[in-house]
Each structure stands twice: as structure tokens, then as C-alpha cells.
């Protein structure tokens, strides 16, 4: 029997509970793993609340990222064996799989042998943040040396990953955060500049930083009314990546800046990478190379035991963290 986290109705963190169930054996093309750590993501909180891209079928499991040890493999699996140290990649629907618990079963295409130099907590923190930022900035955006990129929600794990990736490319990461409270932490994390959007005009500040050229890319999970100011911060033929809905408000189309500067507003999710085998393989290699060189280093904000899964989600949604929220099992 396994202890797994499920919710039987959508709602706040309090709906999460630990159930004891029999997961059975892995099926064809699946891996069963003993979980040592979980990496939490806002996507999972939105899924739990019924506000994600897909609606949960309750009772529902949840969770994209885990690290642990392979216990068993299903038929047709040849690249992994019991005892392998692995981590999971968000490359599946949470209506089919979920990794929150002490044991999980996942499809083999969503499993990687992570570097042994990583702790369990670090290994559970790499794929969502780095592949999400990689897909937008590298695979699609082709961010280049000397180009400016504005990164909103910069203290999130994906925001910090984007800062690290921008620096690895020789680009100029401009971190956007609501207030100056996290300024020092973001500068320490590698941001070249920090803009407090509740206190400063982001378009004016980006213009000063870029000698009035504007940013080539804006990477934004907040959306809502703020996209108009972000569009104003872009330069000619800039790209605004919209990869979340944290604002919880309608997102207007900034028509006049888009026309005047030939802008592209692009909806984007991690699945643009993980949904294609070739893209995912290139993304994995980029992440592995970055981890090996030291350009990429996951930042852990706080760790909770599995028994405090409700508290961990409350902390995740508090927005006080700088980095990844993890759960140890």
C-alpha cells in the first residue's frame, strides 16, 4: 500500500489529504518509483483549485515533479531498471498521473536519470523550471548575447531559472517584482536589473536600461491588465510570452503597441517542449549541460515533510518565497 496525496473536491490547500491506496504494478511503458522528494508548482495549485488548463476528475492525484528510485518497470521498458536514481519530467496529464506521495507510477517518457551530484530536493526541482524557461527563451525566442529579457514573477522558480539561462547566454535579465522587498535576493540570484512594478514604470525603466531600444523578450506568467505595460516595454519585433494566469483577471490585447512595434504575443506552456520527443531531448541536454557547468543551479526556498502537504501549498500560494518549494518523503 502507498501513501498518496489526493483531493476529493476542488478548493484551497485544505482539500488535500493523504490516502492509503494500492497503486498496483506498472503497466506497459510505465515505471514505478519510490519517491524521496517532490517539487511543487503553481500549476498544481491551480489544478487543485479547478482553475487549470484541464479540469480534475475527483478523487484526483496531482503533481508533476518527483525524484526517487525505480522500484519496478512495466513491459517494454528497457532504459531503466530497479535501483536507478531518477526524476520525473512534466510530460503527462494530471488526470492520468500524479506524483505526490511516497510511491508513484509514471510513463517512461517522463523519466530521466538525473545527475548524482544533485540532492533529492534539487533533483525534484529542475525540470519544470528549466524546461519552461528553455522552451521560451532558447527554443522559440532564440535569445542572444546582449539582448534584454524582462522576467516577471522573477522570484518564482521559473523566474529564477530564466535569469540563470539568460546569464548563460550572455543576455541581460531584467527581473520584475511587485515591490523592492526581494530586490537584494534577485540581484544575488543573477538579475542584472530589478524593477519594482508597484513603484516604478516598467516601460520607462526598461527604456533607460536598453538605451530606448526596449526588451526583445518579455517572459510573463501573470498576464491580466499588466500586459499593456509589458508590451510598452518591448522593442521593435519583440515577443511577449504569456505562460500563466496568476492575475486571475482578463488579459487585454495591447493593440496599439503591437501594431506600432510589430509585436508577437505568444501563448506558451512547457508542453511545447515536452510534447515533442525531439524538443524534449534537446531541452534535457541543455539542462544537463547547464547543471554540469554550474550555469544552472536550482534554488530551494523551503522544504516541508509530506505530512505538511497542506501547509506546503499554503506557503506556495503566499508568494513570499524566492525559489522552489519542495516536500520530502
What would you say about this model in short?
The chain has 329 residues and is of the alpha/beta class. 29% of the residues lie in helices and 27% in strands.
How does this model look, in words?
The chain is α/β, with parallel strands linked by helices and 329 residues long. It has two domains: 2-126 and 298-328, Medium-chain alcohol dehydrogenases, catalytic domain (Quinone Oxidoreductase, Chain A, domain 1, Alpha-Beta Complex); 128-271, Rossmann fold. Helices cover 29% and strands 27% of the residues. The protein is built from eleven helices and 16 strands. It has helices at 42-49, 120-123, 127-140, 157-169, 183-188, 202-209, 227-233, 255-261, 271-274, 277-293, 309-316; strands spanning 2-7, 16-21, 30-39, 60-61, 65-73, 85-88, 103-107, 111-112, 148-151, 172-177, 193-196, 215-220, 234-242, 264-267, 300-305, 324-328. Strands 3, 5, 6, 7, 8, 15 and 16 form a seven-stranded mixed beta sheet that branches. A six-stranded parallel beta sheet has the order 11-10-9-12-13-14, with helices on both faces. Strands 2-1-4 form a three-stranded antiparallel beta sheet, with no helix packed on it. The protein is globular and about 60 Å long.
Amino acid at each position: 500500500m502507498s501513501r498518496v496525496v489526493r483531493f476529493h473536491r476542488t478548493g484551497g490547500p485544505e482539500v488535500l489529504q493523504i490516502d492509503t491506496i494500492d497503486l498496483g504494478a506498472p503497466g506497459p511503458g510505465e515505471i514505478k518509483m519510490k519517491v524521496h522528494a517532490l517539487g511543487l508548482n503553481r500549476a498544481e495549485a491551480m489544478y487543485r483549485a479547478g482553475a487549470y488548463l484541464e479540469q480534475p476528475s475527483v478523487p484526483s492525484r496531482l503533481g508533476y515533479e518527483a525524484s526517487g528510485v525505480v522500484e519496478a518497470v512495466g513491459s517494454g521498458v528497457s532504459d531503466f531498471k530497479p535501483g536507478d536514481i531518477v526524476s520525473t519530467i512534466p510530460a503527462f496529464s494530471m488526470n492520468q498521473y500524479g506524483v505526490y506521495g511516497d510511491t508513484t507510477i509514471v510513463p517512461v517518457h517522463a523519466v530521466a536519470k538525473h545527475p548524482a551530484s544533485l540532492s533529492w530536493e534539487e533533483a525534484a526541482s529542475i525540470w519544470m523550471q528549466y524546461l519552461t524557461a528553455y522552451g521560451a527563451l532558447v527554443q522559440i525566442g532564440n535569445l542572444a548575447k546582449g539582448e534584454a529579457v524582462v522576467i516577471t514573477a522573477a522570484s518564482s522558480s521559473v523566474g529564477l531559472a530564466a535569469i540563470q539561462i539568460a546569464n548563460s547566454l550572455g543576455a541581460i535579465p531584467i527581473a520584475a517584482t511587485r515591490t523592492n522587498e526581494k530586490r537584494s535576493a534577485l540581484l544575488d540570484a543573477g538579475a542584472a536589473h530589478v524593477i519594482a512594478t508597484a513603484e516604478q514604470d516598467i516601460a520607462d525603466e526598461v527604456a533607460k536600461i536598453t538605451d530606448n531600444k526596449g526588451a526583445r523578450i518579455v517572459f510573463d506568467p501573470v498576464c491580466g491588465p499588466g500586459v499593456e505595460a509589458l508590451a510598452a516595454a518591448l522593442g521593435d519585433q519583440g515577443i511577449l510570452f504569456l505562460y500563466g494566469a496568476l492575475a486571475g483577471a482578463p488579459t487585454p490585447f495591447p493593440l496599439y503597441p503591437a501594431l506600432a512595434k510589430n509585436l508577437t504575443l505568444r501563448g506558451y506552456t512547457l508542453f511545447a517542449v515536452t510534447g515533442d520527443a525531439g524538443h524534449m531531448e534537446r531541452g534535457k541536454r541543455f539542462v544537463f549541460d547547464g547543471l554540469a557547468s554550474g550555469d544552472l543551479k536550482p534554488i530551494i526556498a523551503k522544504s516541508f515533510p509530506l505530512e505538511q502537504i497542506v501547509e506546503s501549498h499554503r506557503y506556495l500560494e503566499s508568494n513570499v518565497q524566492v525559489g522552489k518549494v519542495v516536500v520530502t518523503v
